[in-house]
Structure formats: structure tokens, C-alpha cells
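Kindly inspect the following:
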Amino acid sequence: MRKYLRLKTLPEPQKRPGRKSKLDPHISYIIDKLRESHYKALL
């Protein structure tokens, strides 16, 4: 906290890298299977 009180200006917010999901390697397969399925959600 002290380091922020000593600063004359506010620090710029830092961008965080996006977190990868465990499903990322399988997304294309999942999407293909959902498109093939006859169980489709209607909005």
C-alpha cells in the first residue's frame, strides 16, 4: 500500500493475458459434434 501512496500519479492498469481452458484443444471437435446433433437449442 505504501508504494501507491508514494506515487504522484495513479499507475496504469495492466492487461492480463487470457486464461486458457482445458477444453481449448477440443473446441473444434465439440462444435462439430454440436452441429451434427439433432438436439439443437432454439432461441
